[in-house]
Specification:
The protein is of the alpha+beta class and about 700 residues long. Helices cover about 50% and strands about 15% of the residues. The strands form six sheets. Strands 1, 2, 3, 9, 10 and 11 form a six-stranded mixed β-sheet that branches. Helix 5 (about 210-225) crosses helix 7 (about 240-245), helix 11 packs antiparallel against helix 12 and helix 11 packs across helix 18.
Length: about 700
Amino acid sequence: MPELLLELLSEEIPAPMQARAAEDLARLVAGALEKLVIANARTFHGPRRIALLANVAAEQPGQTVRERGPRIGAPEAAVLGFLRKHGQGRDALRQEGGYWLLERSLPAVPAAVLIGAALPDLLRRFPWPKSMRWGASSFTWVRPLRRILCLLDGTIVPFSLAEGNDDGHGLVSGNLTEGHRFHAPGAFAIASASDWEGGLRQRKVIADASERRIRIAARLARLATEHDLPRESAAGDTNLLDEVAGLAEWPVVLTGTIDESFMDLPPEVMRVTMRVNQRYFTFSDRNGSLSRTFAFVANIEAADGGAAIIAGNERVLRARLADARHFWDQDRRMRLEARLPRLEGVTFHARLGSQGARVRRIVDLVRVIAPAGSAPPELAVRAAQLAKADLVSGMVGEFPELQGVMGSYYAANDGEPESVAAAIREHYAPKGPDDAVPTAPVSVAVALADKLDLISGFFAIDEKPTGSGDPFGLRRAALGIIRIVRTNALRLDLLPVIRRWCAFVLEERGEERTVRPGPAALATLPEQVLAFIVERLRVALRAEGARHDVLAAVFAAGRDDDLLRLLARAEAVATLLAGRDGADLLTLYRRAANILRIEERKDGPFNGEPEEAHLREPEEKALAQELLGVQREAGALLAEERFGPALTRLARLRLPLDAFFDRVTVNALEPELRRNRLNLLNGVRDMIDGIADFSQIEGREEEGRA
């Protein structure tokens, strides 16, 4: 198949936009050339170019097109209009099914023709997140577009971006590209994809972003070894690796040294300053402390080995760290507690009030949560009061990534208890699946309160996650709650906590009333929030490979708000179903449920107690006796939360229920026998449904046979 190469060379493209742009280019070209077969597509992206290499069919095959025209007997004007539309004469028409039919053969179309026709419009509507204008043309691009290279098997595919009176900046396709801006300036011609990739490499451009990334990571690892530092300490910053790979066409990794006078700054401050402002890689030493060695990526091979570049970057870093020291020293002059009034002027959300109002809600929740985790209430409340105070500090204003971290340092500087300082740092955690979970009791209480307030607040104003987005991170917050509870084996009833949140909101008066849903909206809020958290738990179990359908079945049987108890019940049910008795019981349950569903439509419900006088057959008597025993014994075990033994006892229903279906006709001719037997089956169904809604267990439904 012919080889298509398309390269779009521009001024520097922001690194975060490059990969998505390359994906969009491949997607749009495939869509525009859908009549051609496209294979082996490969994309490239970098600071100055996005490109696509693919094999395409040599031509769009010829085809016969059948077009139905006006009805036979339609006005002559309609027939003539139809013919003009298709550029055909009357002799091309024939009659079929009461209509005029036009049948014409279309010749094969060469791939170059289709490509040249499709690309101008594709480039004019390219979906950059932000585009700019330059010159007089209406054509826009992320940065000024300088060249278009388009070859099909080495031959230029001709097209222009001109449109009407708009010259499209004079951009036309060609066979020219450019190498490194400094090492090899100027254009050069190419004849193939291999010629393109090799020619760029000779001119100090690595076209493949993944190769640039691997090259940087390998060099960082070697530098770490040379400085006797852990190899993964810098290369582990995958997001920064992706970014710098998009900043340099010919990446050269250099190292510098942090001025000793700044090493007393908090390491988090130094790391964030260096990463955010300068895109520097920091290293940790063998003890986990910040090393004075740092690395950065240059885009040139300097004649002096990079000495001048290193000196310049060290000079810039000293200025950056001096700014950080200013914030550090300035912030510590004011106690965290003194910053609390300023939170009233910081809006958390227009419909949820200020950060000060949010702190009051979190403090109120902490008072409810702290006893469950054995956290000293006075320390938990103190931590909750101070948790957001660093939001109005100079350092967090400059680097929002440090919220919580700086509050912890400032609290320690103020002489607050160690557990309070730790809770301020940890209450945002876990922020992601790889983030550590708080385990200290005070930290656990504040972290849970923070996340429950977040979810409850946005649910209260009907800002819930949708399939297309979760702008406030509510799913992440729910998963954080789940991980905290599971990691710490925390027994916490969630509904009372959420109800307390609703009550606190309703207790606010006047200007203090920041959350403004009515009492009716708040009445259903606890159940909504609980269901949302349990659904995230189900998703988490599915990701772990566990029986997530069992969790849904157990929750449906009784909306348990203790996540640990819910998990224990689900585990017991899953264990039961994994055995022969449980699997058979599930099959028999479904048979009973289906019979009841059919019969209840006729003259149900059948919710009465089975009458002993109407128990005629030995098998129905045995089932009734076993059901009473299960209700008594399993019920007691469930009350003691001994779920495994309770379900083992429940499984003993299998044999008498099986015998009942085998020997007893449920729909007996005598009405009293039929109703009594259906009442008995209903008792079995209710007993099982009280443990788990087996109808939600995945698997083949069994048809009921009466």
